[in-house]
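User: What would this chain look like folded?
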Amino acid sequence: MFHKIIKRGNRKVGKGDHGNEGGGVYGYGNSGYRNSGMVSTSNVTINHASRPAVAVAGAGNSQQHPGVAGSNHPALSPSPSMIETLPFFRDTAVADRPGLFMRKLQICCILFDFSDLKIVRERETKRQTLMELVDFIQSGSVKMNEACQEELIRMISVNIFRCLPPASHENTGADAADPEEDEPYLDPSWPHLQIVYELLLRYVVSSDTDTKIAKRYIDHSFVLKLLDMFDSEDPREREYLKTILHRIYGKFMVHRPFIRKAINNIFYRFIFETERHSGISELLEILGSIINGFALPMKEEHKLFLLRALIPLHKPKTISLYHQQLTYCITQFVEKDYKLADCVIRGLLKYWPVTNCQKEVLFIGELEEVLEATQSAEFQRCMVPLFRQIGRCLNSSHFQVAERALFLWNNDHIVSLIAQNRAAILPIIFEPLEKNVKTHWNQAVNGLTGNVRKMFLEMDSELFEECERQYLEKEAKAIELEERRDLTWKRLEAAAAGETDRDDMVIAN
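Assistant: Here's the prediction, encoded as structure tokens.
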């Protein structure tokens, strides 16, 4: 699905998306824009509801228009008397198009309150203007100069870098919502935001965009604010962000180390502080593609990222929301460098859940994928603690955990690794297998356990019989120890009863 999103950057906007092309386009003229300081971003603040505000660096007048993001006032529409009609690009001479482009950008810097039904016409005007800007960049009819590019990024920043509304859990204290069970939050301003994101995507992927110039405006500050927006609860916005950030990573090589480090920091904060973030799965999807392109031998920086960020991501209780993407990233590392398998498996064991059975099922599934890429030497280093944990899973009273652990023996590569090291593995899990056969309440688990026992018997009958003999001896000793304990208790009870009788006789005399 991610690759389909990536292809979106090459999709042309259809004519049907433009609405009524015959309608007039309204907006501010030059005097209504520069003098009022409407697009100045020097005081624009970008912050989440639960975070301190951060000022956006930018040149320009410090005066703030009430409709610009970061203002303390609600977004307002322009007065009808201040609106002028602007022509379409196709009706304008090529030499005049850059100037018209700048004036249209000024219109798009106005933000609207989507709960106000009185400004429907003005909102539609902005939407039509944004669509025309997308077409203008897509066509490449006029190459944008540096001033146009600067103004374009400023307009995009004013629109998308905003204070996110409080997440549902911030008001209720509840756990993060499951997107498959609960209706996701949908931003009411999406009709404009979507086109702004599309405009940014077209600008980034355009062959006319010179990275040497563009990196002055798509800088580290811009990338950080873009990453902040991944905490949006609107899944449509996160999909666009994912595609755009991935394209920025591919096109702006100078930003690559910074982007990886910034994503690291988001993970650290999520793991060790908040355990609340809406965009972890999307960030992991981007990283999955990045990891796939790592050159060999792998840098130490990348290995540290695996150990310090990816493996600890197994700790949060909301792992089910991003586990699929996390598993892909983890297995990519092991496939790139098989020597990392031991570290990964020990990391899984470190964060293995104790009471969360659904999470345990996820861990076993991930473990199977990691073992699929594990070589014999790395397997031998971790097989003892690994199969001790698998033995505990086999005896789980939750049938899904026991069943999923037994399914490991359906994987030919894992069976091959077990067969090579059966002398160490069978003594560890023989007792859990016998307990399942005798006492587990689930018939499916009993049947699967019988199949695994039969597999070991056929694999090495002498070893199986030796393990069985040791198990029976251990059971006999346990029974003998229990009988001794019962006998000791009976003697103590008799001695206590005798003392009581003597005390009664003394009192009677």
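Residues 1-83 have pLDDT under 50 and may be disordered. If you want, I can go into more detail on any region.
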